[in-house]
Design a protein that fits this description.
- There is one protein chain.
- Strands 1-2 form a two-stranded antiparallel ribbon.
- It has two domains: about 10-160; about 165-300, no CATH class.
- β1 and β2 (about 305) form a beta hairpin.
- The protein contains eight helices and two strands; from the N terminus they run ααααααααββ.
- The chain has helices spanning about 10-95, 100-160, 165-190, 215-230, 235-245, 250-260, 275-285, 290-300, and strands at about 300-305, 305.
- Keywords: Coiled coil.
Amino acid sequence: MDQKPGETDADYEARLAAIVAEGKKRADAAAAARKKKEAEAERLRLLAEEQQRKHAAAAAKAADEERARRREVIFREESALHAQAKDWQKEAENGNPVDVGSRVSQLLNRVTDLLATCIAQQEDIHSLDHTNQVQQQSMDKMLQRIQQLEQQLATTNSGACPSDLVDRVNVLEIDMGVLKTGAQHVCTAAGSSSTPRESIVKFDGLPIFCDSSKTDPIPWWRQFELKLDLHHVIDTNRHAYLYSRSGGACQAWLDNMLSAHACTVTELHKYISWADLTAAWKKRFQVEPPEHLAMDKLLTFSQNNLPS
């Protein structure tokens, strides 16, 4: 992204603008393809769920009809046994001859059928219990998975750094704004100022300041300011560079500041100076080393109201 030797500012701006446009185009295309793929997957999932629901409903209806049929068989056989027992009792009271063998055979057949039906009903009851247990386990697993996804989403949101394509496009837009502002200053002061020319900062070796990576704020800030000083970055352009090298809680803190002033990052210098922003950043993120605090206490003495 550096300016090529012999390349004018206008050509450099045009090249960066083309890169930004191409990045946006690719990001939009990737987002559209992803949405289309997700929509198709969702449609297939809903179709499969609908088919599965219909099959399950049909199976449940058939099972209910079979259970109802078996229940009717039990009631019918029970009524037939009672009626047959009453007939046998009357015949015995009247002294009529009884074919014991045939009647015992009939009784055994009815009892066997009734017992088989009862066993089938008992198996249905055990099957329903097992189905309920499986469904309960599935519900527990689904709730556990939902909780894991919620935790992952919370972790991702709290420690997100500008690493994806959209965030990189935003960083390029910030660089474009800084470049345009610097070009305007250069054009305004051309031929009448001996101030060193500002150049685009390369942050090689300086990581994104992100709380999830536990970046030490004190050496990070020193390296950040040193790189800005080496490239002669003016104070009005330093806000954007700070935003482009921030992530996680620091980027969220700057986003809240932009929302409070209803401005973009390239316009933030109009509402808060770099000195005030530096002081606020250090108060929010930087912790003074304990040895420095101890040294200040040792070097500060008071005699009456006059420090020595």
